[in-house]
Every structure is written in structure tokens, then in C-alpha cells.
Amino acid sequence: MKRVFLIVLDSLGIGELPDADKFGDKGSNTLKALKTSKKLNIKTLEKFGVNNISGVGDKISNPIASYAKMAELSNGKDTTVGHYEIAGCVMQNALPTYPNGFPNEIISEFERLTGKKTLCNKPYSGTEVIRDYGKQHIDSGDLIVYTSADSVFQIAAHESVVPIKDLYSYCEIARKLLTGKHGVGRVIARPFTGEYPFTRTANRHDYSLEAPKPTMLDLIKASGKNVIGVGKINDIFAGRGLTESTRITSNENGMQVTKGYLNKNFNGLCFVNLVDFDAVYGHRNDVDGYANALTEFDTWLSDFYVNLKPNDILIITADHGCDPSTTSTDHSREYTPMLIYGNNLKSGVDLGVRSSFADISATVLEYLGVDKKETDGESFLSKVLK
Predict the structure, then answer these.
(1) Three state DSSP letters for the chain
(2) Please, which pLDDT band fits residue 13 given cuts at 50, 70 and 90?
(3) What is the C-alpha separation between 119 and 296, in angstroms, rounded?
């Protein structure tokens, strides 16, 4: 039995990519920003060799994991594109974004199909949009529709005004509408509650554009092995390629669920997304909060990795950046870290700068004995396997 635990620390970038200026992200470095906080204590990640990755920090002798600096080959910097590439699907064409809001042809048809009027229709911070439009929404019952620098169509509604099942139904309508040239990466339900100032709830739900070709999830599932999604993985991949999925309410909950899989018998992949780094701290420019959250993960990791079974592999990476120290509240176009550890793997191997996140997929597939077929990426398994 072979198991791979692949954990995505959502938005933990490690420095600008060469084309970052084209995305407005010159100078972004998420991990470097966190290192300015007194809340950061990542002794386990440092023991793994995170600082040994080129340009990250002061190297240590004899790190226990092998490591690489991952470049994003896809044209984008968001969750959907990053995860698709990690899973072996490089997106050459950029997904559509709407810096001036959605065109009237989309909004009017959405209103016709839902029977609901809309508010806002601009790029907006998720916390600020409910602050500025929440009261009007409650008074009118109109849906708050907004976007961001990413390829997203977001619908915010108060849970007492629009029941969750209705909000999800409106998102499903939007997902069917937004295809072709308007095929955004994600339609996102953004429920909130309480009185002003309002609070977003954990009932968020993402409706993703399906990957345009098979991913490693599809291939592993087709081979008869298990593909377990923890957190946003089910939403990101539109439920495709999974044999089991568990929703989570926070990073802490996600880590508890992931630890639980250590003692479950499965043969294949456990794919985990910990979204709080991005959603709760990165987008809100909360350096200390982000640093503290990474410290909490590090503490959890110190106990998790020592309980891995002989044929288990642990891979830790990220899907993009979200530098909390810049004026922007959006994702940033950055390199990501990759740490790979297992009792049957070599330690301290510098795998250099990889040309694509998809190398992770190729490595996972080779380890599990699954043909990579038309998926992208080059495996580095031979360099780390004992």
C-alpha cells in the first residue's frame, strides 16, 4: 500500500516570478513578509529544509526532506489555475477577469434567470463589499455580485435574507451561464450573517470550471486507487476525480481531518487544501495572523510527519502567493515551495527550480504506479527515492 499526502498551504509564495510585473506583483514575497513577524516560528519547516530552497533563507546542514522552488507555467495566479497545474494540467490561456465588472449581457441574463436584481458588480474585497452593500441587500433582497483580480463571479447574501440552498442554486445558475469566453474559473457563494458589521460564514461554496483535460485525480481514480479530498479540493476540481471528500471549517479542522487519515487504510492520494492562510490572512493583509497560522501548522506538522507509515510520502507546497505586506489584497504571482519527505526517500536533495507545478503530479503518479498519459510535468521521483 502506497499513500501520498499532498498538502497545499494556500497562497504561501516564496518570491516573485520573472513575469510578476505583468500581473502587478513586482516585489511580492509572501514568506519573506511573514518573517518580519514575531509570531512566526517554523522550526519544523526549517528542519525540512524550507530555507534551503534557493533565495528563501539561511541554509541548514542535513535537512530531513528534499526541496524545490516551483515556477508556475500557467497563465494565472489563482486557486483554480494553481491547483490544476499541481494536478498536471497547465493552463496556457488566461481565464477571463473583469476589472470593470461583468458586462450587461451577463448581469441582465443572470437577473432574468434568477428573478433577482443585483448590487455592486465591481472588483471588491469580500469583507468590504458586505460592509458597503450589506444593508442595502437586506433592505432590497437584491444579490451582491462582485469580482476580484481573479477569474471569479462571487455572490454574497445574508443567510437570513437568502437561505443557503437558494444562494447555492443562484451560483449553479451562474456557473451554467458563465461558459465560453465568459468561463470564469470559479463561481463562489459568499454567505454572511449577523448585524453590521457583518460576518462571513463557513458556508462558502465554490463552483469551479472543470479542468479541460484529465488530471492526476482522474487518472488515480481510474486506476482503482483512492483519491481523498480535504477542504476546498472537491470544489476546486468540481467533484471530479475524487473517491471521498471532507469539507472543513478552518485550518485547524483541516489538520485534524488530515491527521485522522493517517490511521485509515487507503491506497492512493490524500489531497489537502488549507485555505485560511489565503482567505483569512493573505487577502486581509494580516501579516501577524498569517505568521501565527503558519506557526500553528508547523506545530501540527512536527507531530504528523513522525507518524507516517513506511511507504507514505508527504509533499507540502502552495498554489500561488498572497503577500500580506503589500498594498494589494489580491493574489500574487510567485514561486512556491515544495518539500517532499518519506521514510523511503532521500533527505537533503536540492531539486532546484522546477519549470512547472505539474512536476508534483508527475512524481505522485510515478510513485503510485499510474501512467501519466497526457498530463503535464516531469517526475523527480528517481532523484529522491532510495
Answers:
(1) CCEEEEEEECCCCCCECCCHHHHCCCCCCHHHHHCCCCCCCCHHHHHHCHHHCCCCCCCCCCCCCEEEEECCCCCCCCHHHHHHHHCCCCCCCCCCCCCCCCCHHHHHHHHHHHCCCEEEEEECCHHHHHHHHHHHHHHHCCEEEEECCCCEEEEEEECCCCCHHHHHHHHHHHHHHCCHHHCCCEEEEEEEECCCCCEECCCCEEEECCCCCCCHHHHHHHCCCEEEEECCHHHHCCCCCCCEEECCCCHHHHHHHHHHHHHCCCCEEEEEEECHHHHHHHCCCCHHHHHHHHHHHHHHHHHHHHHCCCCEEEEEECCCECCCCCCCCCCECECEEEEEECCCECCCCEEEEECCCHHHHHHHHHHHCCCCCCCCCCCCHHHHEC
(2) very high
(3) 38
Q: Which grid cell sits at 361?
A: 503530479
At residue 332 the predicted structure's pLDDT band, cuts being 50, 70 and 90, is very high
Give the pLDDT confidence score for residue 321 in this predicted structure.
98
Alpha carbon separation from 53 to 67, 264, 337, 348, 351 (Å, rounded): 6, 32, 7, 10, 9
Interval 211-242: pLDDT, tens: 999 999 999 999 999 999 999 999 999 999 99
Nearest to 191 by CA among 199, 183, 179: 199
- Domains (range + CATH), the chain: 3-93+210-384 (3.40.720.10), 104-208 (3.30.70.1250)
Distance CA 140, CA 20 (A): 41
Residues 6+ apart with CB under 8 A from 218: 240, 241
pTM for the full predicted model? 0.94
Average pLDDT over residues 310-316: 98
pLDDT in tens, 273-294: 999 999 999 999 999 999 999 9
157-176 confidence digits (pLDDT tens): 999 999 999 999 999 999 99
